[in-house]
C-alpha cells in the first residue's frame, strides 16, 4: 500500500479538525469583541502551550492536545449577589472559586466590558456564534462536494451488455443512450430501472440514441428478484442488514457512471438529514456508547453507524486515504464529507443545554432574559444577571462524564474501529 495517501489523509483530517475548532472559537470571539467584551485568550487545543503571541489585549496560541479549544471571555460570571451567604462544602467552594476567578479578570474601570453585563440577545449571539460557525463550515464543505466536485451518478448511457441477456437479444450495444421506454421519455437511470421492473416478461419498445441517430428496439425484460431501492437509488436493507428483494426484471445492462453536479437543494437536504440523525444519536448517546463498548469487547461486529471519538474519525480518514479502489478525487470527496459530518456533530453537540457546553450558556441567557421579560410585564425592577456560578457543580459533573465517554469511545476505536470499507 502506498504510504503517501495515508500521510496526506491524516494531515488533511488533522488540519480539517484544527480549522473547524479554530473557526468555532472565532465564532465566539468576533461578536464578543464587537460587543466590547475583553477577550484575554484565544487558544486552539488544550494542555501545554506550543506557541502563542499577544496581539492587542488577546493572546493567540496553539496547545499540544488538538481535542478542542477555547476563548477566555472576561467576566463570564457575575459577583455574588449582595447579602447571599456562601454555600458550605466542596461544591460551595467550587462556586466561590469560580466567582472569584471571573471577577479577578476584570480590570479596574472595565466593569462594563464584562460578559455578564451583555444583554440577552448579545449573549445569545456570542454563545451561538461557535456552533453556527460549524454549521456554516458543513454547508460550505457539502456545497463543494455536491456542486463543485459532483457525485458519481448512474446515467442512461449503457456501459456494458451482458451475454445471453434480454438486452443482447434485442440488439442493445455499449454506448447506447436510452431516451424512451415503452413510449415514455427516460430522464434518469432510477426511472428506467422502475420501468424495466414494471415490464417483466413483456415485449416493449425501447428507443436508444446511437451514433447521433435514434434506434427503436424491442426488449423483453427477464422476470427476476432484485434489490428494492429507495428514492435515491440505494438498496433498502432489512433488520439484518441484508438487501430486501422484490419481484422485478432484468434487462442485462449496466449504466455508465459520471460525476454530475447535484441541485442546490441537495445541500440543505443533506444538512437536515445529518442534523436530524445527529440529534437522534445525542438523545440515545448512553445506549450508543454502551453498544460501541459492547461491540468492541465482544465478538459482535462494530456497526458502521456507531458513534466515534476523534480517534475513530482519524481511523476513518486513514481508511478513506488508503481505499485503493477509489480515485484521488473520490478520496478527497469522502474526506470532505467526513469533515462536514464532524462539523454537524460539533454544531449539535454544543447545543446541549448543559454547562460547560455552549448550550448551557445559551440556556442561562434565555433564563435570564425570561426573568427580565416577566419583570417588565409586571412592572417590577429588572433582576440582575443570572448567577451562573451556581451551575458550576453541574458543569464539573458534565465535564467528568464527557471525559469518561470520550475515553470509552477512544478505547473502542482503537480495539475495534468502525470500518468504512
Automatic annotation (TrEMBL):
Compartment(s) where it occurs, according to its Swiss-Prot or TrEMBL record: Membrane
Keyword field: Hydrolase, Membrane, Metalloprotease, Protease, Transmembrane, Transmembrane helix, Zinc
Pfam families from the UniProt entry: PDZ_6, Peptidase_M50
Gene Ontology terms describing biological process: proteolysis
Keyword Disulfide bond annotated: no
Domain PDZ: 143-212
GO molecular function, one term: metalloendopeptidase activity
GO cellular component, one term: membrane
Membrane topology note: Multi-pass membrane protein
Domain of life: Bacteria
Record-annotated membrane-spanning stretches: 6-24, 124-149, 334-355, 394-415
Essential cofactor(s): Zn(2+)
Coiled-coil regions listed: none
Recorded family membership: Belongs to the peptidase M50B family.
Protein's name according to its UniProt entry: RIP metalloprotease
Amino acid at each position: 500500500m502506498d504510504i503517501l495517501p495515508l500521510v496526506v489523509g491524516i494531515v488533511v483530517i488533522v488540519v480539517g479538525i484544527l480549522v473547524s475548532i479554530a473557526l468555532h472559537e472565532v465564532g465566539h470571539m468576533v461578536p464578543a469583541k464587537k460587543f466590547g467584551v475583553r477577550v484575554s485568550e484565544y487558544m486552539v487545543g488544550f494542555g501545554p502551550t506550543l506557541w502563542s503571541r499577544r496581539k492587542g489585549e488577546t493572546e493567540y496560541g496553539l496547545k499540544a492536545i488538538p481535542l478542542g479549544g477555547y476563548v477566555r471571555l472576561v467576566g463570564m460570571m457575575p459577583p455574588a449577589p449582595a447579602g447571599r451567604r456562601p454555600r458550605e462544602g466542596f461544591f460551595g467552594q467550587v462556586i466561590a472559586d469560580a466567582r472569584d476567578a471571573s471577577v479577578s479578570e476584570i480590570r479596574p474601570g472595565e466593569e462594563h466590558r464584562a460578559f455578564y453585563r451583555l444583554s440577552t440577545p448579545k449573549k445569545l449571539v456570542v454563545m451561538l456564534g461557535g456552533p453556527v460557525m460549524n454549521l456554516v463550515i458543513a454547508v460550505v464543505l457539502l456545497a463543494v462536494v455536491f456542486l463543485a466536485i459532483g457525485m458519481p451518478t448512474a446515467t442512461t448511457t449503457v456501459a456494458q451488455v451482458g451475454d445471453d441477456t434480454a438486452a443482447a437479444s434485442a440488439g442493445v450495444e455499449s454506448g447506447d443512450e436510452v431516451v424512451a421506454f415503452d413510449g415514455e421519455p427516460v430522464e434518469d437511470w432510477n426511472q428506467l430501472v422502475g420501468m424495466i421492473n414494471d415490464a417483466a416478461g413483456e415485449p416493449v419498445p425501447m428507443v436508444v440514441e446511437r451514433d447521433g441517430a435514434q434506434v427503436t428496439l424491442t426488449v423483453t425484460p427477464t422476470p427476476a428478484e432484485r434489490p428494492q431501492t429507495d428514492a435515491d437509488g440505494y438498496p433498502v436493507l432489512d433488520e439484518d442488514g441484508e438487501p430486501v428483494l422484490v419481484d422485478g426484471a432484468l434487462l442485462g445492462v449496466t449504466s455508465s457512471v459520471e460525476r454530475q453536479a447535484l441541485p442546490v437543494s441537495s445541500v440543505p437536504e443533506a444538512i437536515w438529514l445529518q442534523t436530524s440523525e445527529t440529534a437522534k444519536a445525542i438523545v440515545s448517546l448512553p445506549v450508543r456508547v454502551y453498544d460501541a463498548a459492547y461491540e468492541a469487547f465482544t465478538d459482535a461486529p462494530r456497526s458502521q453507524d456507531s458513534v466515534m471519538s476523534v480517534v475513530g474519525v482519524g481511523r476513518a480518514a486513514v481508511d478513506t486515504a488508503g481505499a485503493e479502489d477509489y480515485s484521488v478525487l473520490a478520496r478527497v470527496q469522502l474526506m470532505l464529507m467526513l469533515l462536514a459530518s464532524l462539523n454537524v456533530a460539533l454544531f449539535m453537540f454544543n447545543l446541549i443545554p448543559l454547562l460547560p457546553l455552549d448550550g448551557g450558556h445559551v440556556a442561562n441567557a434565555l433564563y435570564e432574559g425570561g426573568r427580565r421579560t416577566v419583570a417588565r410585564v409586571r412592572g417590577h425592577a429588572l433582576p440582575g444577571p443570572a448567577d451562573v456560578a451556581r451551575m458550576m457543580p453541574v458543569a464539573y459533573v458534565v465535564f467528568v462524564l464527557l471525559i469518561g465517554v470520550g475515553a470509552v469511545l477512544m478505547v473502542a476505536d482503537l480495539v475495534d474501529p468502525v470500518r468504512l470499507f
